[in-house]
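Why predict the complex rather than its parts? Because the way molecules touch one another can change local conformation, and only a joint prediction can capture that. The input here totals 298 residues.
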Amino acid sequence: MTSRDVLFAAVGLITAAAAVLSVTSRRVLHAGLWLVVTLGGLAGCYLVLGAELVALVQLLVYVGAVVVLVLFALMLTRSGAGEVDTSMGHRWIAGAVGAGVTVLLGGTLVAAYGWAGREIAGPSNEQIGEQIFGTWVWPFELLSLLLLAALVAAVAVATTGHRRREGQR
Amino acid sequence: MSPALPLLLAAILAGVGTYGVLARRHAVLMLIGVELMLGAAGLVLVTVGQFSTDPLASGAVLTLFVITIAAAEIVVALAVVMAMFRTRGDVDLTGEAQADDHGVHHDGEDLHREHHRSEDHAARDEVVG
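Output of the joint prediction:
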């Protein structure tokens, strides 16, 4: 057990606990804030694994942008004290399915990779940059188109109901 | 270090995300479950990429792509949720609220709509502000 293992176990425990809290918290804003901790912990996991660039992008995009969107949506759609969870029986079935997914995925992945320690041999940031603008340049450019389409679609969808209401009056 | 730890964490995140998608009826909270599953996918990609010598750096690059696509996805999904909130007045995914609307009499529905129209200004201020 190397020091990296111990570090990863600590960060991973925080991440897993925050993930569980973010899907079980009764108060919607608390669930959103636990999501911040989960995604930040995930960025820490990437850092421990030696992928600095991915960790920083995760921090910028997820914790910086996505979570702010989610928190805004949670605050804008607050409609009184509605129930946020399904019924007890439904939740037990959901828990069983979730546990099944965990066991199945964990068993498969660990069986495929094993417990033996390996050394980290990931690409450096220079290599990642070269590959993004070399091998992966067309998918990368397509992504910018996708982001543009998503932006336009989001504006269109979000303003549709608004305009119909204006027309009704 | 052993690759089993990150892979186990990814499995836990995927399971917790599945539970979140299935057990939540608030639309935005269900999306949190989807985010957790996407995070699990990214963790598997990064782990596999870091423990192999890949000249194309696929693990890291594909994780960056997944993060970008997840950002696009959450933007569209939240726009749909906001449109749903504006037309229905709630973000409940069970459909019980709609069933209630069908259950009440016609005059009750009219009253409901009248109530909405009178509250229009306040609701719009709330949505915009």
